[in-house]
Write a structure and sequence with these properties.
About 40% of the residues lie in helices and about 10% in strands. Helix 1 (about 25-35) runs parallel beside helix 2 and helix 11 (about 250-260) packs across helix 12 (about 280-295). Strands 1-8-7-6-5-4-3-2 form an 8-stranded parallel beta sheet. It has 12 helices and 8 strands. It has helices spanning about 25-35, 55-70, 85-100, 115-125, 140, 150-155, 170-180, 195-200, 215-225, 230-245, 250-260, 280-295, and strands spanning about 5-10, 40-45, 75-80, 100-105, 135, 160-165, 185-190, 205. It has one domain (about 5-295): Aldolase class I (TIM Barrel, Alpha-Beta Barrel), CATH 3.20.20.70. It has about 325 residues and is of the alpha/beta class. Helix 7 links the parallel strand 6 (about 160-165) and strand 7 (about 185-190).
Length: about 325
């Protein structure tokens, strides 16, 4: 399907059972919730999807399940996170054959590539597939910064179509527009900078904590793009303590715990990650419960698309 490069693309978690086995039913139920909330696309197997803890076969099963649940209603974007360019090219080809609608590409993991090596990685993987690609820039987590000047060099690669900007520096939105104009679709990638990015011209938001608060997440973005800033600000101020959970090294555990408290999934993660305990757990639960207790009443934003109806699920063979 043609990907509508705009609005909210949640970065989905991969749901597990207590024994760390893959819970495709739980993942699929949460996908259905996000589609029904109005999400415009699904990003599977990203950092929140605990990509590095999955086997290659498990990754394919997760994306296959997402494609089945989405059933053409929204595009499914598969994240490419590999330690070599060759492996990334192979995975990109596999996702294209599987039926993914697009890819989100990260730099090669472990090795800190320089600018020349990073540009070659992105060009080589892009040549290996016909799928459109979101370029993920998160130098804080992956220690490789794809600068506006580098994106200008990549502008001739036609299937590099979008950027998930997660540098933590909101000035990058303007720097990118100045460097490359409208060549790329720009996605906000840090939850507690989403409104700022929208005001500065981001086209969409690859969201994290919105997995636990999908209605509020969608409403906030709709208000932002409608430039209803006076209405958006109180909602954003309520949302911000929750959004801060997206910027910690344990953001997977924090957001999965919020999803569990919201009744939309479970907190189980794979080792070496562990569920939260003790004072840290109490502190994060306090933030989550405060958000729920002070949850604002919502009404549709001007011009917001209607929420999608849930699709009846048929049982899956195991």
């Amino acid at each position: 399907m043609t990907v509508p490069w705009r609005d909210v693309f949640p970065a989905m978690t991969t749901q597990f059972r207590r024994d760390e086995s893959l819970d495709l039913e739980g993942t699929s139920r949460h996908i259905e919730t996000m589609i029904a909330s109005g999400s415009s696309g699904l990003v599977m197997l990203g950092s929140l999807g605990e990509n590095a803890t999955l086997t290659p076969e498990e990754k394919r099963r997760v994306v296959s399940a997402a494609i089945e649940v989405a059933a053409g209603r929204v595009p499914v974007i598969a994240t490419v996170v590999e330690t070599s360019t060759a492996a990334a090219k192979q995975f990109a080809r596999d996702m294209e054959r599987l039926g993914a609608d697009g890819l989100m590409l990260l730099p090669a993991m472990i090795y800190r590539a320089d600018a020349r090596e990073t540009l070659l990685h992105y060009r080589d993987v892009a040549r290996a597939t016909q799928l459109p690609i979101i370029c993920y820039n998160n130098p804080l987590a992956y220690h490789v910064d794809i600068t506006p000047a580098m994106f200008a060099e990549l502008a001739g690669v036609t299937n590099l179509v979008a950027i998930k900007e997660s540098s933590g520096d909101v000035r990058r939105i303007t720097d990118l527009r100045n460097a490359v104009g409208d060549r790329y679709v720009l996605f906000a990638g840090v939850d507690d900078l989403a409104l700022e990015c929208a005001v500065l011209g981001a086209d969409g938001w690859i969201a994290g904590i919105g997995l636990a608060f999908p209605g509020e997440n969608q409403r906030l973005w709709d208000l932002a793009v409608a430039r209803e800033i006076d209405t958006a600000l109180p909602l954003y101020r309520w949302f911000t303590p929750l959004a801060h959970l997206d910027t910690h090294v344990k953001f997977v555990q924090y957001i999965k715990l919020a999803i569990q408290v919201a009744g939309l999934g479970t907190e189980w993660v794979r080792a070496p990650r562990r569920v939260l305990v003790g004072e840290e757990r109490r502190r994060i639960l306090g933030i989550i419960h405060a958000g729920i207790e002070n949850r604002p009443a919502l009404s549709p934003a001007p011009g917001a698309p209607p929420a999608r109806k849930a699709r009846p699920r048929r049982s899956r063979a195991r």
